Amino acid sequence: MVQKYFKPCDFEFRGLGLIKNGGLELREEFANYDASKLYDCEVKSKGENKACICGQILRGLAKPYECKVFGKVCTPKNPIGSCMVSGEGACAAYYKYAIGH
After folding, report:
1. CA distances from 47 to 3, 4, 14, 92 (A)
2. What is the pLDDT of residues 38-68, one digit of tens each?
3. Does the reported pTM lie above 0.90?
């Protein structure tokens, strides 16, 4: 059912960068439902905080506690990177369940 309405597209993921065919966009025949086309809106990226290592954490190259801002500046109440933003994020989960590491 997803293929009926959507087609793959390149997508920029926070912490990971551009992934070819990593996202989905509405097919042309459903363009009249696409808010980005209807309202001529542009999503602007704030960019990544240089102190944040979410990209490395998401790729399994680092642990949350190896980040210099983890648990100090970057907390669930003040998330710096995408890994701390949602409760399911790697850093948020580590903060909640393993902060004493």
Report:
1. 31, 33, 8, 20
2. 887 777 766 778 899 999 999 999 999 999 9
3. no
